[in-house]
Write a structure and sequence with these properties.
Layout (H helix, E strand, L loop, with lengths): L4 E10 L6 E11 L4 E5 L6 H9 L7 E8 L5 E2 L5 H7 L4 E4 L3 H4 L6 H11 L4 H14 L5 H4 L9 H14 L4 E5 L7 H18 L2 E6 L2 H7 L2 E6 L2 E7 H6 L4 H9 L38 H5 L5 E4 L2 E3 L4 H4 L3
Parallel strand pairs: 3-8, 3-9, 6-7, 7-8
Antiparallel strand pairs: 1-2, 1-4, 4-5, 9-10, 10-12, 11-12
Helix pairs in contact: 4-5, 4-7, 5-7, 7-8
This protein binds iron/sulfur cluster.
The site of iron/sulfur cluster has 13 residues, from loops.
């Protein structure tokens, strides 16, 4: 296996009143080098928990199973790494950008200083730091970087702050960038610009990216591969184009039909029926069965395993073949 990161059978349990809740259940996918993987699902699907496990932001003991193999198997399991190793990985080999840049930026330091600090910690000689800060701000699309590096985060607009956070993330020269709903808080035009920026950075620098989003349009725009999550499990995964053109899971199909612009500008939108199952009240059998138009008796009792359904594609549906073109 030559994935940069292999998520293998990841299980996350969180404490809850009346016993623990399994919020992520045997989630498996890999992120090849220089590839963007979109992790998509409604709230409660486990997508953010999965990303937080990768970056090491979950409370101790929350991950109860699986492996996060870094740079190939058997390689290094991030779940077994020492706290010092995790800290070194975070911000350098693996960097993260969040929905809310203010949570990641220090309000009391100028943007230039914050980016410079990461470069210094990464061992850049002092004499090179200013030039590299300017390069990074420019790469993140911040105009007049020599002037803007002296600004504080509160002096930036929402879109500019997101660009500053991207510059900060790139400062450690990461191999993997985790982006959790990076454009959700922005207006539509700024969203499109930030997505274009992320895509061009990913392509030019050969970065791998894990893009977490509830918005299929965002994933369709940027991701090479998509992982669709439902109620803590993977419903389907595969190349984005193939999954969007012919979803192999009724849940992915419902997602695609709820956003017709993903496939055609003329089709009508069909909102997703019913309410999402959550890990705390996951129905037995296939968790999607109460909302599924194809559900049959078997679906109520027998959980469908994720299985290969076409080259490079996996789906957790007993009847996936019925959805695929023959
Ligand atoms: Fe629908 Fe059954 Fe497939 Fe689940 S296993 S998605 S209920 S057809």
């Amino acid at each position: 296996v030559d994935g940069l990161l292999e998520v293998d059978g990841l299980v996350i349990d969180l404490p809850a009143a009346g016993g623990g809740v399994r919020v992520v259940d045997r989630v498996t996918f890999d992120i090849p080098p220089a590839t963007t993987v979109g992790l998509i699902g409604e709230s409660g699907s486990g997508k953010t928990m999965t990303a937080n496990a990768v970056i090491g932001l979950l409370p101790d003991g929350a991950v109860t199973g699986g492996h996060l193999r870094w740079r190939g198997s058997p390689g290094e399991d991030l779940l077994q790494a020492s706290p010092a190793r995790r800290r070194r990985l975070r911000g350098h080999e693996i960097a993260m950008i969040f929905q809310d840049p203010l949570a990641a930026l220090n309000p009391t330091q100028t943007i230039g200083r914050q980016v410079g600090e990461i470069l210094r910690r990464a061992g850049r000689p002092r004499a090179e730091v200013r030039g590299r800060v300017l390069e990074l701000l420019e790469r993140a699309g911040i105009p007049e970087p020599a002037a803007r590096m002296r600004s504080y985060p509160h002096e930036f607009s929402g879109g500019m702050r997101q660009r500053a956070m991207i510059a900060l993330a790139l400062a450690g020269s990461p191999a993997l960038l985790l982006a959790d709903e990076p454009t959700t808080a922005l207006d539509v035009t700024v969203q499109a610009r930030i997505l274009r920026l992320l895509r061009s950075i990913q392509e030019e620098q050969g970065l791998a990216m894990l893009l977490v989003s509830h918005d299929l349009r965002v994933v369709a725009h940027v991701a090479h591969q998509v992982v669709v999550m439902y109620a803590g499990r993977v419903a389907e995964r595969g190349p984005t184009g193939a999954v969007l053109a012919a979803p192999a899971h009724p849940y992915s199909r419902a997602l695609v039909e709820s956003v017709p612009a993903v496939r055609s500008r003329t089709a009508l939108a069909h909102p997703l029926p019913g309410t999402p199952a959550t890990p705390a009240n996951r129905p037995p059998g296939c968790a999607f069965h109460p909302r599924c138009p194809l559900a049959r008796e078997r679906c109520r009792t027998e959980e469908p395993p994720a299985r290969p359904v076409a080259p490079g594609r996996w789906a957790a549906c007993h009847f996936a073949e019925e959805l695929l073109p023959r």
